[in-house]
TrEMBL record:
<dbReference type="Pfam" id="PF01624">
    <property type="entry name" value="MutS_I"/>
</dbReference>
<dbReference type="InterPro" id="IPR017261">
    <property type="entry name" value="DNA_mismatch_repair_MutS/MSH"/>
</dbReference>
<dbReference type="InterPro" id="IPR036187">
    <property type="entry name" value="DNA_mismatch_repair_MutS_sf"/>
</dbReference>
<keyword id="KW-0067">ATP-binding</keyword>
<dbReference type="InterPro" id="IPR007861">
    <property type="entry name" value="DNA_mismatch_repair_MutS_clamp"/>
</dbReference>
<dbReference type="GO" id="GO:0140664">
    <property type="term" value="F:ATP-dependent DNA damage sensor activity"/>
</dbReference>
<dbReference type="InterPro" id="IPR027417">
    <property type="entry name" value="P-loop_NTPase"/>
</dbReference>
<dbReference type="GO" id="GO:0005524">
    <property type="term" value="F:ATP binding"/>
</dbReference>
<feature type="domain" description="DNA mismatch repair proteins mutS family">
    <location>
        <begin position="722"/>
        <end position="738"/>
    </location>
</feature>
<dbReference type="Pfam" id="PF05190">
    <property type="entry name" value="MutS_IV"/>
</dbReference>
<dbReference type="InterPro" id="IPR000432">
    <property type="entry name" value="DNA_mismatch_repair_MutS_C"/>
</dbReference>
<dbReference type="InterPro" id="IPR007696">
    <property type="entry name" value="DNA_mismatch_repair_MutS_core"/>
</dbReference>
<dbReference type="InterPro" id="IPR045076">
    <property type="entry name" value="MutS"/>
</dbReference>
<dbReference type="GO" id="GO:0003684">
    <property type="term" value="F:damaged DNA binding"/>
</dbReference>
<comment type="similarity">
    <text>Belongs to the DNA mismatch repair MutS family.</text>
</comment>
<dbReference type="GO" id="GO:0030983">
    <property type="term" value="F:mismatched DNA binding"/>
</dbReference>
<feature type="compositionally biased region" description="Polar residues">
    <location>
        <begin position="392"/>
        <end position="401"/>
    </location>
</feature>
Length: 868
């Protein structure tokens, strides 16, 4: 009979913890100064972290030093895996098994450690449920305490916000992904959801965790309220199930209640400007088509000096507004700083020394505390009085820069900001008095409480310093007594304090020295006196360390008592940062304050593309602005000139123009000033785009399929308050199919006799320009070029009227196509345009007999047009 292998008590402890963990989790098991992984975890860990795999008795092991654990954990999370931390929870004693406990599970969406978060970006964990009642969504940022829910019967209306928040981790009900796969056939919503789930860490959870009633209960308990009315949320809100799932997951991973959640807000698609996922990508709102921040709108309009400011900007772009009063408040606030550049610059300089209070608070509330972050609270609070007085000065100065400050000033849009900035003098004074100037980042390092703050600590510390003096004196005295000139009193972790005598002096060692250790060149001794003193020193050090930690916890408590005021202050600081940044960008790039109204008109004078303009300026450094952006105006209204059909040569600037109109509208609806000389923006409910040809092979879609999916989405969801930009629709298929689709799309958008979504339609189909004769609200525009001999010069000016030709061959020549190819193309074009398929052109290869271009004649036929 095989003898059963005996498991050591420590490994028993390990297996107990290991069996409770969720799948895809690596267990880091603390053994002294290392976190060890065993068995399969060790194999996976060694591979993911690039560390050595070793074998101990009959199991595999891999370890990482505990002090460098954070960087290794970051790598595991980046590989979309979870990390469970099992710590030693008592001081180890020889011969006794040390107690261990699972203290935390870190997952991609719940980590709150500073070095695992991107300071400039929000870090969300989201839960989704999609059933008969519609689409429910909840998301949480444990690193800041933001908590939101949303429900909509139309999933299309919540996809924009889901894609924009870009959660690091997603919770779904068990079996969800499989059911989405089954339903995805030709259903763009499911396709988008599958793609979305595949591109991030996803955990499927049992369905009871998504139960609405228990979700409501969990939310109330976590927020410490008896109902949710104070947050404007019904107890029966459909997304409370998702919210409950998030809380359950957060509790499981933190191994405690999340302590930094104090409110929950509902996101309403109806109150927001919606930008569907395709348009977010096409307009390069959060990242460029190359997947980088550089080249995106958010990058172009980010003038923030603090990470919290950058995160607020992201939140505002995630949910652009439709509420004019809120947008007006933002625009007016920017104006104050725009008109007071000195004040704004001063504020920005001060903001640089402000710390990320929201994230610091979240960590403190969830038991991750260190002296340096506590010092961050102090350093920030110390700036508040100065910040407030500068803001007051800015608020007091009249809109005309340089004019006198009125004694009794009228209310200012900045008053609201001032009210939310709390000085908290008592807490500031306490932290200032209690903490040293320079602070360690680890609590264990000690030495962070200032001298004079606590007499008891000072007494204990003086004991240890006195003891150290005693040791120096002992060294001098023993040298004197023994005559050993190089005798040293030293310390190491294994033996504590000892006297070291080199081998050559051993004959001089007195009798009371007790030999402890021999090294290559010396012997180490102790004495009774030295041991007694050592005990005294250790005792004093331990006591002072304990006392210091007690004081530290007292300070943390004092900070947490003010967490509401501190959170408000942090939020106000973030706003201040966004406003000052926008004012600076507005000055640097000559932006204007848009006028907002609820009309159906967009009226932009001398508008520019915010990103292309900045790129051109960068590229033209040293060329005295020879590549300056050419501004263009537009006046478009849903009830008057609803559809602008824009033709013009390749490379003329059609796409840039239609995108800039969409971006300017979006910028106005987040409250930012806009790149134009004047702009009147009638609030829009949605921006749609069908731009460029991008295939989506990863999702199994061809270029044309993507194009048609996006077009279908637009036609099904656009309202008369929407803005649509369509770029070369129909180009992904044969000319006639494409032209016919483009044509009927225009007719469809124009079908209502009174009004329709404002549409900018860029096309190379010259035939469409004739539609203006029959569609009353369609106008032709073109991007002008100048002809010079056989060449063209781009002037980038949008003018009224249709373009006469495409100049594709001239542009191809500019692109460097070989001359014979260009000449041949011209020949072919002439033949095709001659309408005569029978003409033989002398050429190396016979020209394929193409179907001649049909002339299109437009005839009035009630609502439809005739094709001949
Ligand atoms: N108003 C402008 N001022 C200066 N440069 C511009 C302007 N508009 C466009 N450009 C430059 O011209 C380039 C081509 O513009 P764009 O892609 O908009 O042309 P297009 O007419 O849509 O071309 P195609 O029909 O081939 O797609 C842009 O990359 C940009 O650098």
């Amino acid at each position: 009979m095989a003898r059963e292998k005996k498991i050591t008590p420590m490994m028993q402890q390990y297996y107990e913890v290991r069996k409770t963990l969720p799948p895809n989790t690596l267990l880091l098991f603390r053994l002294g100064d290392f976190y060890e992984m065993f068995h399969e975890d060790a194999e996976v860990g060694a591979q993911v972290l690039g560390i050595t795999l070793t074998k101990r008795s009959d199991y595999k092991m891999a370890g990482i030093p505990f002090h460098a654990a954070e960087q290794y954990i970051g790598k595991v999370l980046a590989a979309n895996m979870k990390v469970a931390i099992c710590e030693q929870v008592e001081t180890p004693q020889a011969g006794k098994l040390v107690k261990r406990a699972l203290t935390r599970i870190l997952t991609p969406g719940t980590t709150i450690e500073d070095n695992q978060l991107n300071a400039q970006r929000n870090h969300y964990l989201a839960a989704i449920e999609y059933d008969k009642s519609g689409f429910s969504l909840a998301w949480i940022d444990l690193s800041t305490g933001e908590f939101r829910i949303a429900h909509d019967s139309k999933p299309d209306d919540l996809l924009p916000v889901l894609v924009s928040i870009d959660p690091a981790e997603l919770l779904l009900i068990e079996g969800t992904q499989e059911s989405w796969q089954k339903q995805s056939h030709n259903n763009p919503v499911f396709e988008e959801l599958i793609h979305f789930a595949n591109s991030r860490s996803t955990s499927e959870q049992p369905s009871f965790q998504f139960d609405c009633d228990s979700g409501a209960q969990a939310v109330m308990e976590t927020l410490g309220v008896i109902n949710l009315e104070g947050f404007g949320i019904e107890k029966t809100h459909d997304a409370l199930g998702c919210a409950g799932a998030l809380l359950h997951y957060a509790r499981e991973t933190l191994r405690a209640e999340p302590k930094n959640l104090s409110s929950i807000r509902e996101y309403s698609a109806k109150a927001s400007l919606l930008i569907d996922p395709a348009t977010l990508r096409n307009l390069e709102i959060f990242k460029s088509t190359r997947g980088l921040r550089e080249g995106s709108l958010i990058d172009a309009i980010n003038g923030c000096k603090t990470a919290a400011g950058a995160r607020l900007l992201e939140q505002w772009l995630i949910a652009p507004e439709r509420s004019i009063p809120e947008l007006q408040r933002r625009l007016d606030s920017v104006e104050q700083f725009f008109r007071n550049p000195m004040g704004a610059t001063e504020l920005q300089a001060t903001l640089k020394s402000v710390r990320d209070i929201k994230r610091i608070l979240s960590r403190m509330q969830n038991r991750l505390r260190n002296p340096r972050e506590l010092g961050g609270v102090r350093d920030t609070l110390l700036q508040i009085p100065e910040l407030k007085s500068t803001i007051s000065e800015v608020a007091s100065s009249s809109p005309q820069a340089g004019s006198a400050v009125p004694a009794d000033r009228p209310t200012s849009p900045l008053d609201q900001l001032l009210d939310r900035l709390h000085e908290l003098p008592a807490l500031t004074e306490l932290l200032d008095r209690a903490l040293k100037e320079e602070l360690p980042s680890k609590l264990d390092d000690g030495g962070y409480i200032a001298t004079g703050y606590d007499p008891e600590l000072d007494r204990m510390l003086s004991l240890t310093t006195d003891n150290k003096v005693w040791l120096t004196e002992l060294e001098a005295a023993e040298r004197e007594r023994t005559g050993i000139k190089n005798l040293k009193v030293k310390y190491n972790g294994a033996f504590g304090y000892f006297i070291e005598v080199t081998k050559s002096n051993l004959s001089l060692v007195p009798e009371n020295y007790i030999r402890k250790q021999t090294t290559v060149n010396a012997e180490r001794f102790i004495t009774e006196d030295l041991k007694a003193k050592e005990k005294e020193i250790f005792h004093a050090e331990e006591n002072s360390k304990r006392r210091e930690e007690e004081l530290f916890l007292g300070l943390i408590e004092a900070v947490l008592e003010e967490s509401v005021a501190l959170t408000q202050t942090a939020e106000a600081l973030a706003e201040l940062d966004v406003f000052c940044g926008w004012a600076e960008i507005a000055r640097r790039w000559d932006y204007c304050k848009p006028e907002l109204n609820d009309s159906d008109v967009l009226d932009i004078e001398q508008g520019r593309h915010p990103v292309v303009e900045q790129m051109l300026r960068k590229d033209s450094q040293g060329l005295a602005g020879s590549h300056a952006f050419v501004p263009n105006s537009i006046g478009i209204s849903a009830s008057n000139n609803q559809i602008h059909l824009i033709t013009g040569p390749n490379m003329a600037g059609k796409s840039t123009f239609i995108r800039q109109v969409a971006l300017i509208t979006l910028m106005a609806q987040v409250g930012c000033w806009v790149p134009a000389s004047a702009a009147k923006i009638g609030i829009v409910d949605r921006i749609f785009s069908r731009v460029g040809a991008s295939d989506d092979l990863a999702r199994g879609n061809s270029t044309f399929m993507v194009e048609m999916n996006e077009t279908a989405n637009i036609l099904n969801n656009a309202t008369e308050n929407s803005l649509i930009i369509l770029d070369e629709i129909g180009r992904g298929t044969s000319t006639y199919d494409g032209l016919s689709i483009a044509w009927s799309v225009i007719e469809h958008l124009h079908r209502d006799p009174e009004t329709g979504p404002k549409t900018l339609f860029a096309t190379h189909y010259q035939e469409l320009t004739q539609l203006d004769k029959h569609l009353g609200r369609l106008e032709n525009y073109s991007v002008a070029v100048k002809e010079w001999n056989d060449d063209i010069v781009f002037v980038r000016q949008v003018v009224k009227g249709a373009a006469d030709r495409s100049y594709g061959i001239q542009v191809a020549r500019l692109a460097g196509l070989p001359t014979p190819v260009i000449d041949r193309a011209k020949e072919i074009l002439e033949r095709l345009e001659s309408d005569d398929a029978s003409v033989t052109v002398s050429s190396p290869t016979p020209i394929p007999v193409a179907k001649p271009r049909k002339k299109i004649k437009v005839e009035k036929d009630e609502n439809q047009l005739g094709l001949f």
